[in-house]
Structure formats: structure tokens, C-alpha cells
Design a protein that fits this description.
By secondary structure, this protein is α/β, with parallel strands linked by helices. It folds into three domains: about 100 residues, Urease, subunit C, domain 1 (Roll); about 270 residues, Alpha-Beta Barrel (TIM Barrel); about 120 residues, Diaminopimelate Epimerase, Chain A, domain 1 (Roll), CATH 3.10.310.70. The protein contains 19 helices and 26 strands. The longest helix is centred in the N-terminal third of the chain and has 23 residues.
């Protein structure tokens, strides 16, 4: 008996020793990041010092001493006190449009129509007649003469080449006479529903087309080739990695564009994750997805298609946003509704019934009111668990509609740099009283909603640090106006960070996959040059991305950014 007891004790001791060895033996990690200031963006917004990564996932977060004891890594990175954040997520962007804008004539920041004309003249020098000039970025609100330009300015510098120039917001185009002739647009051409052809005193088209009127020109514009779209996607991906964007929510792509995105992500080294909205105005694309269903987590969680993009109105800058009362600087004009309420209802019902989220563009207070009414009706008719309906922009709100977002469970997807770009002329458009309901981040937050942060690039810069800065200051990058524009509507630093990380992830049903630095989540991380949570807010735009990681792989590095071994 005693012998058996002794043997049993020896066995127990041996097993205990083995367990001790297993528990205390160093674990293997692919990458160990240590000596950093880690913003986990978890539920408590807690801080850490080190992160271990294996198999593309985060496996441990904690103190440097603990993780150095626990893990042996193939690659160790001494962050030297640098801040580490979850990879930034842009909740409203136009991915291929960013790349295409890099292939176009870049007219962002131009100071006059004459400057644009000079750039067009230089572009067509030596070109054969008939070759198209495409460009993007003009904004008459930035010019000394704040009126829409006319075709004659382009006719003078490019009489033999079609010229097609997008306004910065993508809701208006400026063309020359050659394009008008190709499209057959004349004085007799009627404005389409939801669009406007700007005309002179005699009723002749001036060369400016707003919102749905742009569709009149589409048939004569040559399509981009697949190779051009692939090149655009690769260029856009490089820009995203440079700015620490590891995920973005692409707000409106058709079936052909989604096929290009699938080809891009199929390449193993594609450096960004895409959550794609189907372009609802393209009936064939939407019908395809209604028939075939959602696509989730393709190519190792690099591509998901599960939301429908619809448009309620146009943009404020081109006076296409639908307002309850007329524009203060354009009496008689209440803007444009681009999609009827009946069409919105049908689209939302079809989406909800087939498991799709809905994201509706609404900028004016009238458009937002219509969208909230539509969502309320659809949810009452056929409630589904956790639909996470979104309003893209939610830019100008009737105060009575602000609490309805929370009541209906609707997510406002907003772009902080829109506020700081528009603040110079927004009061002219809206008047002082109505402006109180514009870019109303704090008013919305106080009702209990979260805000999904984005840029709307290429309308604005894709740099998320500019968006975070705008959110916490409501100032331009020169510090104007002193104290911020309607400063009571600012976000806190924590809220701004969450809007570009964990909250944005929630807006795409991906909060368990990304958006914070926690064990089990994808190792999408970004190292910054400055601790933007500790420096004065005015210095946030000067911070740089040193390194960007996607799924445990470095996809962007500045030379000699940090010590690696």
C-alpha cells in the first residue's frame, strides 16, 4: 500500500512539474513589439507596453517585462516609447476613386478657374484632338469669384479635346463645349429628376452638371480599362498604408469594380482590408447581390460585400443638399432629392430581407428627415435583429431629428474634415440658426449614439490624423478659428480615436475582428512618430506613420523607423 502511495505521489509530482514547465516555458511569437505606449482602445481605453503576434493575430497584450519573459519571437521590435494604435479604419471612402484621382489632372487647391484652365492647357499641349482630359478637385468656394465656372473658359484652352472635371465633392462636373456636343445636350435638354443643368440667362447650358444631371454625360465618357482600374487600386492601397489605414469602408462600387477589387485582394500582398457597399443606383449590380447574397471575409478577411449604398440628396457645396427651408444664399432653392422615398423604402426592405445593411447618403436636413422616416417605416414593417442602418454624412440635421438616431438604432457615419473644409462658407448656405444643427457631433453623442469616422476621400485627404485633429479642435490646420468653430460640438480625444477604430469596426459588424488591440483580433497595427494623445492638439497633423502592419505583416515602413532584430 505504501509503495503504491509513493508511486502515486511521484506521478503527481512529475505531472505537476511538467505542467509547471509548460506554463513557464517561453511561448513562440512571430513578432514581439515592446517598450511602447500601446493604446489598446478596448472597452476601458486601457494602456499597455507590449504586444505579441502569431499567425496574423494578436496573442498577448501587457507589460514589456511580462511579455519578454513569456515569449520568444522571430522578430522583436523595440518601439522606444513610440505609440502603437490599432490600424485606423476609414468608415466612408471611395477606394478606386482615390487611385483614379492620382491618374487624373489634380486640381485640388486651385485658386481660380483661370488656374484650372492653365493646367488643362498644359495637359493637352501636343495631344491629338479627341483625347479626353479628366480631372478632379475644383471648388469654387475656394476661389475669389465664388460662382460656378463656365464652359467658355475650357473651350478657350482645349477646343479640340473633351474636358471633364469633377468638383471636389463628386456631386458636380464642369465640361467644355466638346462634351456638350458629344452628349447632345442643348438648351432644349430638360433637367432630369434629382439633377440640374446650370444655365445662363438665355437658358443655354453653362457646362456645369449637378448630381443626377451628370448621368446625361455618362454614355459618351470612355470607360476606364480593367488595367487602369487595377493600377488605380494599387496606387490607392499604397496611399492607405502610408497613412496607417488598414481597413476602409468603400461607399459605392458596381459589379465590375467589385470584380477588380476581388482580383486585387487575391494577390497575397494586398495591404488593406475593404468593406464594400454595392452601388444601389446600378440596378444590375444590386440585382446580382440580391440573387447571390453577401460575401463576407474573402481572401483572409480582406474583402466583404454586405451593405447597400443609396443616395437621398446631393452636396452642400454645390447646393444640391436637400434642405427643409431654402438656402440662405440662394432663395427659392431647397436642393435636390436624388432618390424618391418609395425607391428608398423598396431598397431598404429588399436589403433587410436579404441580410444586407443599408448606408444612405444624406447631407441636408430634409434628406436626413426623409431617411430617418424611411428607416423607421422599414424597421416597423419587418424588424430584423441588429440591422445597423447607417446615414452617411448626417451633415445638417433638424434638431428634432437628432435623438431619432439613437431611438432607431441608426449609426451616423460622419467625416470631421468636411466640417473644417466647409466652415468658411457653411453659414452663408445655412444661416446662423440652422448651422447649429450642422456637423453636430456632440449633440448626437449626447443622445447615446456612436459616430463612425471617415474622410470621404478623395473628397478630403485620406490621412486619418487630419480627421482626428478636426474632430477634437474644429479648426483648420492653421489653427483657425481661435477656440474652434462651434467648439461645443467637439469630440474628446478618446471619442475621436474610437471613431476611426473600434466604432468604425462596429459600423461594419467587425468589432470582434478588429478595431482594438486585444488577444484574438487581427494584428492590424500602426506605429506613430508622436504620441497624439499627449501632445498639444495643434501638433496632431504633424505626426507621421512610421510603420503599418496588416495581419502580422509590415506593409509600410519609414526607413529606420524603430529598432528591429
Amino acid at each position: 500500500m505504501r509503495a503504491r502511495t509513493a508511486v502515486a505521489l511521484l506521478v503527481l509530482l512529475a505531472m505537476g512539474f511538467l505542467v509547471y514547465l509548460v506554463l513557464n516555458a517561453p511561448h513562440m511569437a512571430d513578432i514581439l513589439l515592446y517598450n511602447g505606449k500601446v493604446y489598446t482602445v478596448d472597452a476601458d481605453f486601457s494602456m499597455a507596453e507590449a504586444v505579441a503576434v502569431r499567425g496574423g493575430r494578436i496573442i498577448a497584450v501587457g507589460k514589456t517585462s511580462d511579455l519578454l519573459d513569456r515569449f520568444e519571437a522571430q522578430e522583436s521590435v523595440d518601439l522606444q516609447g513610440k505609440p502603437l494604435y490599432p490600424g485606423f479604419i476609414d468608415a466612408h471612402a471611395h477606394f478606386l476613386s482615390l487611385g483614379l484621382s492620382l491618374l487624373m489632372l489634380d486640381i485640388v487647391g486651385t485658386s481660380s478657374s483661370e488656374q484650372v484652365a492653365s493646367m488643362v492647357r498644359d495637359r493637352v499641349r501636343g495631344w491629338k484632338p479627341g483625347r479626353w482630359v479628366r480631372g478632379r478637385g475644383w471648388d469654387q468656394n475656394d476661389w475669389s469669384v465664388k460662382e460656378f465656372p463656365t464652359r467658355e473658359i475650357l473651350d478657350a484652352v482645349a477646343p479640340d479635346n473633351p474636358v471633364y472635371l469633377w468638383r471636389i465633392d463628386g456631386h458636380a462636373v464642369w465640361v467644355n463645349r466638346t462634351v456638350l456636343d458629344l452628349a447632345g445636350v442643348t438648351k432644349e435638354t430638360r433637367d432630369p429628376e434629382g439633377g440640374r443643368i446650370v444655365r445662363d440667362a438665355r437658358g443655354n447650358p453653362t457646362g456645369i452638371f449637378i448630381d443626377n444631371a451628370i448621368d446625361l454625360l455618362i454614355p459618351v465618357i470612355p470607360e476606364y480599362t480593367t488595367d487602369e482600374l487595377l493600377e488605380a487600386g494599387k496606387l490607392a492601397a499604397q496611399v492607405c498604408s502610408k497613412y496607417g489605414l488598414t481597413s476602409l469602408q468603400d461607399m459605392g462600387s458596381n459589379l465590375r469594380e467589385i470584380a477588380v477589387l476581388k482580383e486585387l485582394v487575391a494577390e497575397g500582398d494586398f495591404p488593406v482590408r475593404l468593406y464594400v457597399a454595392v452601388e444601389g443606383s446600378d440596378t444590375a449590380s444590386w440585382n446580382y447581390y440580391l440573387q447571390h447574397g453577401r460575401e463576407i471575409g474573402l481572401a483572409g478577411n480582406k474583402l466583404t460585400v454586405r451593405t447597400l449604398k443609396l443616395y437621398a440628396d446631393g452636396a452642400l457645396g454645390s447646393r444640391g443638399a436637400a434642405l427643409i427651408e431654402p438656402y440662405s444664399d440662394d432663395p427659392g432653392n431647397r436642393g435636390l432629392t436624388r432618390t424618391s422615398e418609395a425607391q428608398l423604402l423598396r431598397g431598404c426592405s429588399d436589403a433587410l430581407r436579404n441580410g444586407f445593411q443599408v448606408s444612405i447618403h444624406a447631407i441636408g436636413d430634409r434628406a436626413n428627415h426623409i431617411v430617418l422616416n424611411v428607416y423607421e417605416k422599414v424597421l416597423k414593417e419587418g424588424p430584423r435583429k441588429d440591422p445597423r442602418f447607417r446615414v452617411e454624412h448626417a451633415q445638417v440635421l433638424d434638431p428634432a431629428d437628432i435623438p431619432r438616431f439613437h431611438e432607431l438604432g441608426v449609426l451616423p457615419s460622419m467625416q470631421p474634415t468636411h466640417c473644417t473644409s466647409d466652415m468658411y462658407w457653411a453659414v452663408d448656405r445655412l444661416g446662423k440658426e440652422r448651422t447649429k444643427g450642422a456637423y453636430a457631433w456632440r449633440s448626437l453623442m449626447d443622445t447615446g449614439v456612436i459616430i463612425l469616422g471617415g474622410s470621404d476621400f478623395p473628397v478630403e485627404s485620406p490621412n486619418p490624423l487630419w480627421g482626428i485633429y478636426a474632430a477634437v479642435t474644429r479648426q483648420d490646420r492653421s489653427g483657425w478659428p481661435d477656440g474652434g468653430w462651434y467648439p461645443a460640438q467637439r469630440l474628446t480625444f478618446e471619442e475621436a480615436i474610437r471613431s476611426f477604430t473600434s466604432w468604425a469596426a462596429y459600423g461594419a459588424f467587425e468589432e470582434k475582428l478588429k478595431g482594438s488591440i486585444e488577444p484574438g483580433k487581427l494584428a492590424d497595427l500602426v506605429v506613430l512618430s508622436k504620441d497624439i494623445g499627449a501632445i498639444p492638439p495643434k501638433e496632431i497633423p504633424n505626426a507621421e506613420v512610421l510603420m503599418t502592419m496588416l495581419g502580422g505583416t509590415w506593409v509600410y515602413k519609414q526607413k529606420e523607423a524603430v529598432s528591429q532584430h
